[in-house]
Design a protein that fits this description.
Radius of gyration: 23 Å
Helix content: 40-55%
CATH superfamily of the largest domain: Dimethylsulfoxide Reductase, domain 2
Distance between the termini: 40 Å
CATH topology of the largest domain: Dimethylsulfoxide Reductase, domain 2
Strand order of the largest sheet: 7-6-5-8-9
Strand content: 5-15%
Shape: elongated
Number of helices: 16
C-alpha cells in the first residue's frame, strides 16, 4: 500500500525520548545502576543457572509479546525450550487470540490463516463484527477503502468511526454474536441457500449443525440480539448472494466468554456458503497486536512452528 501504520510513524517519539533507558540496569544495594552488556549477560545467565540448579529447570518461565518480529519470537522460543530447557513459554497474544486459535482449530483443524489483507480489496461484501478498524486497524481500513465495489456491513453494539463507513450498521445487543450467527445458519438452511457442492466435497458435520441451529429460529434470535427478523433475513441473503464474502472480527468476539464458539459459528457460515478458500473470501480474525499472528506461527506452549500440534 506504500504507507505505514500510525503506530510506526510515531515510533521515533519513543526512540528519541529522554526517558528511554539506553543501558542495562542492575540492582546493587537496593538501587538500579547502569551496567555494561558483558556484566549484564553474565549476571542474567548465572541467575538462570542458579534458579535451575536450586529449583529445577521448570522453575523458569518466559512470556513473549506480539510486538516482536516473527523471527525474534522463533529465536526466543528456541532459546527458552532448548537453551533453558523449559516448556513454560507463552506469548501474551494467547490472551487476546485464544478464542480465534481454538475456533480455527476445532473448525478447520489448523490455526493457519485462510484469508489475507489483499482479500479485502477483492471482496464484494465485508462483514465487520465487533471490530472498530477505523480507529484500531488503519492499514486494514486502507485496504478496504481501496476496494471501490465493496459493501461494508458493521455488526457492533457501538456506534463508532467504523460504523460511519458502513453501508449497513447493525447495532446488536452485547454478547449475542453467537446467537446471531447460529440464527443466520438456520436461515441459510431453512431457505436452501447452502452451497451443496462445496459441502459435499469439503465439510463434515452438516447434519449435526442443522440439528444444533434448530434452537435459533429467526424470532428467537431477534429476541436475543435485538435485530428484527427482516434484517436477519437480509443479512443471510447478503451472505449468500454475494460472489465473495469476507468476515473480520477482533476483540469484540475474541474477548467474549463465548468467543471460541462464536468464531466457530462464523466459520460455519462460511463453510455452509462456500465463501472460503477463494479470493476475497474467508473468516478473518484480526489480531489485537501488531504481530500476534507471528507468535502463533513460530510455536510456543501449545504448538510447534508451522501450526503443528505436539500430538498426532
Amino acid at each position: 500500500m506504500g504507507t505505514l501504520c500510525p503506530k510506526g510513524l510515531s515510533e521515533h517519539q519513543m526512540i528519541n525520548s529522554k526517558d528511554r533507558i539506553l543501558t542495562p540496569l542492575i540492582k546493587k544495594d537496593g538501587k538500579l545502576e547502569a551496567a555494561s552488556w558483558d556484566e549484564t549477560f553474565t549476571k542474567v545467565s548465572s541467575e538462570f543457572k542458579r534458579i535451575a540448579k536450586e529449583h529445577g529447570e521448570k522453575a523458569v518461565a518466559v512470556i513473549g509479546t506480539g510486538q516482536l518480529l516473527t523471527e525474534e519470537f522463533y529465536t526466543l522460543g528456541k532459546f527458552v525450550q532448548l537453551g533453558l530447557k523449559t516448556n513454560n513459554f507463552d506469548g501474551n497474544t494467547t490472551l487476546c487470540m485464544a478464542s480465534a486459535v481454538m475456533g480455527y482449530k476445532q473448525s478447520l483443524g489448523s490455526d493457519g490463516p485462510v484469508s489475507s489483507y489483499e482479500d479485502f480489496t477483492h471482496a464484494d461484501t465485508i462483514f465487520l463484527i465487533g471490530a472498530n478498524i477505523a480507529d484500531n486497524h488503519p492499514i486494514i481500513t486502507l485496504h478496504i477503502n481501496k476496494n471501490p465495489n465493496k459493501k461494508v456491513i458493521v455488526i457492533d453494539p457501538r456506534a463508532s468511526k467504523t460504523s460511519q463507513m458502513a453501508d449497513l450498521f447493525v447495532p446488536i445487543k452485547p454478547r449475542t454474536d453467537l446467537a446471531l450467527y447460529n440464527g443466520l445458519a438456520y436461515i441459510v438452511m431453512e431457505q436452501g441457500w447452502e452451497d451443496e457442492g462445496y459441502i459435499l466435497a469439503n465439510v463434515n458435520g452438516y447434519k449435526e449443525l442443522k440439528r444444533h441451529v434448530q434452537d435459533y429460529p429467526p424470532q428467537e434470535v431477534a429476541n436475543i440480539t435485538g435485530i428484527d427478523v427482516k434484517t436477519l433475513y437480509a443479512l443471510a441473503r447478503e451472505f449468500v448472494s454475494s460472489d465473495a464474502v469476507i468476515s473480520a472480527w477482533t476483540m469484540g468476539v475474541n474477548q467474549s466468554f463465548m468467543g471460541t464458539d462464536t468464531v466457530s459459528a462464523i466459520i460455519n457460515l462460511h463453510l455452509l456458503t462456500g465463501h472460503i478458500g477463494r479470493e476475497g473470501t474467508g473468516p478473518f480474525s484480526i489480531t489485537g497486536q501488531c504481530n500476534a499472528m507471528g507468535t502463533r506461527e513460530t510455536g510456543f506452549t501449545s504448538s510447534l512452528p508451522g501450526y503443528r500440534n505436539f500430538w498426532g
